[in-house]
């Protein structure tokens, strides 16, 4: 049985994406301080941030494509 996808919710809150982005940006310094507290060096922290953003890019794309097929 075919179930059509739900209609997209109207975007009546234009500031919502900005709030999400600001929240993501604000957590960066806290994560950096946490890694520093656990003894990671600046180069290691940079590699961890790059690995995190890279894995989000790859897995987010794959999972999003799989979710769209369902």
Biggest sheet architecture: none
Radius of gyration over C-alpha positions, nearest whole angstrom: 18 Å
- Structural class of the helices, strands and pairings? mainly alpha
Instruction: Give the H and E element order.
Output: HH
What does this structure look like?
- With 70 residues, the protein is mainly α.
- The mean pLDDT is 82.
- The chain has 2 helices and no strands.
Write a compact overview of the structure shown.
The chain is an all-alpha fold and 70 residues long. The protein has two helices and no strands.
Lay out the secondary structure:
Layout: H1 16-37, H2 42-69
Structure keywords:
70 residues; 2 helices
